[in-house]
Amino acid sequence: MPNQVLTIEPQNELKFKVDFSGLFELGYTTYMRLTNPSEHTVLFKIKTTAPKKYCVRPNSGVLEPNSKVDIAITPQPVHVDPNEKHKHKFMVQSVIAPEGKTNIDQVWKEISPDQLMDYKLKCVFETPRGANLNDAGDNATQNEVNKKRVAVTAAEDTKSLTKDAVEGFIQNEAKRKDDDHTSGSLNAKTTTFPKSENLESDLQKATNEVIHLREEESKLRHENLRLKEELLRLHQSGGGETRARRHSYGPEKTEQMALMPWIATAIAMALLGIIIGKFLM
Fold first, then answer.
1. pLDDT digits (tens, 9 = 90+) for 105-143
2. In whole angstroms, what is the distance from residue 100 CA to residue 106 CA?
3. Which residues contact 216 (CB under 8 A, 6 or more apart)?
């Protein structure tokens, strides 16, 4: 490949201005000057790796010997991705025009690649403070690495916190079960109290019943003694005929016989109360 015959300014890079968000500055145009110092007519073309983001005028043409041309490169109002900073490049292709050829398009089609002269320039993006967006891309890459490191550290911390949380949960569950067991035991003990109170109430009732039966028994005994004294008094009164005595004895004996079932019942109830009292006590 032959050496580039044209003189290109700037020689290595094209600078573009962008704002802090990476958007091209509106209305800003970068210029590239091509000079033909030779004695030959030279055909040229301007190519870029991002044709949709730049407007190049003119993008092709003819340079007569010892002539020059300024190429205006105006970026479109789009954002520049810092990760694509190294992909934005421009290339100047040139070839010496064959003699007798007037159709430029036909010359570019028929030219051999070995005859082409290429020259590449990289793009540099500057913010209003003069910072280089290319360096910002490197910083962005470093920031991504730092973010990943932070994410890994956060994941490890989260794992540790999760382990501590699980252990704390297990301990809380064990403590809760112990509390439930203790509470259950207290409740069980508490539930026995009503039974004890009911038993004491039953014993008190039984005791009162026994006392009542004993009082009834005492009353019946007094009544029995009274009847016996009355019967003895009637026998001692003497006077009167045997018929009369029999007549008077007959009703008293009948009355005494009528009281016997009550006396037997009272005695049975008293004995039953005594037995129940001994069993409960």
1. 899 998 888 889 999 999 998 887 645 555 545 555 555
2. 12
3. 266, 269, 270
Name the token pair of 74: 């105006």
- Please answer whether residues 60 and 113 qualify as being in contact, where contact means their C-beta atoms are separated by less than 8 angstroms: no
Q: Among 8, 172, 197, which Cα is nearest to 90's?
A: 8
Q: Residue 122, Cα to own-chain centre: how many angstroms?
A: 50
What lies within 8 Å, CB to CB, of 78 at 6+ separation is: 23, 24, 53
240: left (phi over 0), alpha (psi -120 to 50) or beta: left
Per-residue pLDDT, 201: 77
Residue with the two structure tokens 């990943």: 148
CB burial readout 30-44, b (16+ within 10 A) else e: bebebebeeeebbbb
Amino acid identity for residue 187 in this structure: N
Strands 13-17, 117-126: pairing is parallel
Two structure tokens written together for 222: 């007094």
Across the range 225-242, mean pLDDT stands at 73
275/177: higher pLDDT: 275
What pLDDT, in 10s, does the model give residues 57-115? 999 999 999 999 999 999 998 888 888 878 899 999 999 998 887 788 899 998 888 88
pLDDT in tens, 161-172: 455 555 666 666
140, amino acid identity: A
Enumerate residues 6+ apart whose C-beta is below 8 A from 112: none
**In terms of Cα–Cα distance, which of 23, 25, 21, 69 is closest to 45?**
69
Exposed / middle / buried, residue 100 (Cβ in 10 Å: 0-12, 13-18, 19+): exposed
Q: Which of 47-61, 68-82, 218-232 shows the lowest per-residue confidence on average (mean pLDDT)?
A: 218-232
Q: Kindly report the backbone phi and psi dihedral angles of residue 73, in degrees, each rounded to the nearest multiple of 5, phi listed first.
A: -115, 110
